[in-house]
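Record type: monomer structure entry
Structure origin: computed from sequence
Chain ID: A
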Amino acid sequence: MRLARKVGSGDQMRAEAKLVEIASEHQAALVVAAHSTDAEDCIELLTMLGLRETAPGHQTD
């Protein structure tokens, strides 16, 4: 007897993966912000890590 396994659609799986990625990037940005010496240091570190736009409170210019 075969057991049926429900698998989400490809679009749904990609959307869920993107949400996990966004949450991970946000958490990383929070850690960087918490350990930065000042705002300039935080911005520089976030930029180096490619997380500048995921920073909490980030506003586009």
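Annotation 1: The helical segments are 10-35, 39-48.
Annotation 2: The CA atoms of residues 29 and 51 lie 6 Å apart.
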